Amino acid sequence: MTGRGLALVLADIADERARDPDAPPLGPELSELLRAARAAEGSQRPFPPIGRRALHRYLDELALREERP
């Protein structure tokens, strides 16, 4: 999976999460990543990979409170 593809999956998760009126807003780093991924969709420009630690941070941020360990 490419970095762009993974970011687009995260964007889909963020869209689902946005349906919760109690969900806090996303942080600036994740918001920018999702915006960049959507803007680059269909482009042939390289997109940076998402590292393991960053992915864990993003998933934790996207998890609803009741889903967090």
Number of helices: 3
Low-pLDDT runs: none
Which range best describes the helical content: under 10%, 10-25%, 25-40%, 40-55%, 55-70% or over 70%?
Answer: 55-70%
Number of strands: 0
Structural class from helices and strands? mainly alpha
Gyration radius, in Å: 12 Å
> Distance N terminus to C terminus?
26 Å
Query: Could you give a short account of the major beta sheet?
Result: none
Shape estimate: globular
Oligomeric state: single chain
Residue share in β-strands: under 5%
On the 0 to 100 scale, the average pLDDT is: 89
Secondary-structure element order, N to C: HHH
Give a short synopsis of this structure:
With about 70 residues, the protein is mostly helical.
General description of the model:
The termini are far apart. This protein is an all-alpha fold. It has helices at 3-17, 28-40, 52-62. Helix 1 (3-17) packs across helix 2. It is 57% helix and 0% strand.
Helix and strand topology:
Layout: H1 3-17, H2 28-40, H3 52-62
Features:
single chain; 69 residues; mainly alpha; 57% helix; globular
